[in-house]
């Protein structure tokens, strides 16, 4: 039985674009389900913009699926929705977004600066981030679903308009929620296609918490992929791969996200010694590679 295997890739922090091209080539050969390109908050990580990296690599590796990281901070919702949809069209339905929860800033705060904000102050405190994530995700999915122009006035954002052009080749770009942002799992399951547990050790027995969140959201279990993030290095890859696969299946997970702090050699080693033993799921679109049904526009 194949499982979802996502590989983390952070370019610009000791890994050049030439190295990334080499890693992507090896990832295609190993059959990863998707590459997740990390993005760092300004001033915190010396990483290149994830969307730009994916746009650079995707034409050279048309068989790969891509998930780009982007925070709510410094990204106006309409602009980010358009950029991700453009990448999705360029890759023929092989793109998605890992939306990271952030704070307000000059690029987004001014859009909702004159709106009433009942019940929840707009500030930079981490307590507001899950609420900001939910509203931002609602705007994204509303824009991607097309139809009449979106008219959104919320606690954090004001967005008016529609995205021009045809819909996504896969129905809608994939949306990923990351547990490192402390999002509410039920809110995330209602809006996102993939839930990522920050560390594999945090998945409880039988994965009941995540499955319950999907049920409470009103969606079917097969509409949301559940993935755990696993730190891994090539030295223990041969021994760890069968154990990781067995563990994921026993805990009702759909797959794993492989993260390593190493550079080019570490990534290539993981791709050669670990990924093939996990038997990654593949597909002609990102949705199919994640085992998700095609999205029906509302």
TrEMBL record:
Positions of the Luciferase-like domain: 16-250
Keywords: Flavoprotein, FMN, Monooxygenase, Oxidoreductase
Pfam families registered for this protein in UniProt: Bac_luciferase
Protein name: Alkanesulfonate monooxygenase SsuD/methylene tetrahydromethanopterin reductase-like flavin-dependent oxidoreductase (Luciferase family)
Source taxon at top rank: Bacteria
Keyword Ribonucleoprotein among record annotations: no
Organism (species): Kineosporia succinea
